[in-house]
Amino acid sequence: MSGRSVLVVAHTGRREAVRSAELVIDRLTKAGITVRVLDDEARDLRCADVEVMPTSAAAAEDAELVMVLGGDGTILRAADLSRMSGTPLLGVNLGHVGFLAEAEREDLTATVERVVERRYDVEERMTIDVTVRRNGTVDATTWALNEATVEKAERERMLEVVAEIDGRPLSHWGCDGVVCATPTGSTAYAFSAGGPVVWPEVEAMLVVPISAHALFARPLVVSPSSVVAVEVLPDTPRAVLWCDGRRTVGLPPGARVEVRRGASPVKLARLHRTAFTDRLVTKFGLPVTGWRGRVRPGAGDAGRRDRDPPREG
Questions:
Q1: Was 216 annotated as part of a binding site?
Q2: Domain annotation for the chain: domains and CATH numbers
Q3: Catalytic residue, candidates 39, 72, 80, 121
Q4: Is there a catalytic annotation at residue 121?
Q5: pTM score, two decimals?
């Protein structure tokens, strides 16, 4: 064995993900790389010669990579395991949009070869740390890669909140909720709520009210060093905090949620240095018909473009 190890995480509820995981495990093992799988996925994967690990952060300790087969939800689940150890995630998209994934299902064989040959780069993505307080006392702490959302817990009643930026009150909103997102999360829930798309290399936090009944209820982009707070007013219905759609904390009236830049980023493995603009075009199927590109100096209208247009679809 080479001393190298890779943790494979799969959406085992999908047959395609199981088949893909079996292929990945077989090829990595034949390349002399030790493969780890989670104990709650081992039975579905039915693979020999793997290390079965507890479903905890310890599973990714000292691993070279966490290879994830599924959609963004599976990648967010794997991020729970890898963040504290600083192990990079490499996502293979078997879902729909898959903004966090680096490769598509049809590229699986080539992706495994890139892993075997260590031909990938690693980038860091900003996270947010979230603190819930009640009567000044810390009630819960958690984190998110995409977003932390304060939402109403009762469908028929509006949530009343006050937003605060850096210790100063900003606005009172009657709303369905408030999304506090990272640039990575700008294409997730925040996007659906009407927030801007933020390029991943921009360091900032987004604050996006959801269906707010207020004159001033526009999405906000604030400094990464800011502290954003959302206070649930005492006379409002109970609320709930969701982080990445996975971790939840109940918020009684009077609760305060504080969001700040996370102390630990999430690392993502990258196989291609694709421009984020091209990723947007591909994932959202944006129309780019008519784009001619920058013409090289002196070439006139018949000059060649500097590069090919992004692939649509």
A1: no
A2: 5-125 (3.40.50.10330), 128-261 (2.60.200.30)
A3: 72
A4: no
A5: 0.90
Residues 1, 30 contacting (CB under 8 angstroms) = no
- Asked if residue 310 has pLDDT above 70, the reply is no
Task: Please indicate if the annotation marks 236 as binding a ligand.
Answer: no
Q: Is 312 annotated in some ligand binding site? A: no
In the block, which residue shows the tokens 């494979």?
8
Instruction: Please give the span between the terminal C-alpha atoms of the chain, in angstroms, as a whole number.
Output: 41
Q: Residues 237-259: what's their mean pLDDT? A: 96
**Arithmetic mean of pLDDT, 281-287:** 91
- Side-chain-side CA neighbours of 4 within 13 Å: the count stands at 15
293 is in an annotated binding site: no
Residue 67 amino acid letter: M
Mean pLDDT of 227-243: 95
Helices marked H in the chain: 15-30, 42-45, 72-82, 108-116, 189-192, 276-284
- Angle 108-116/15-30 helices, nearest 10 degrees? 30
The b/e string for 261-282 (b: 16+ C-beta within 10 A; e otherwise) is bbeebbbbbebeeeebebebbb
Q: Judge whether 126 and 202 are in contact, CB under 8 Å.
A: no
Q: How high is the pLDDT of residue 46?
A: 84
74 is in an annotated binding site: no
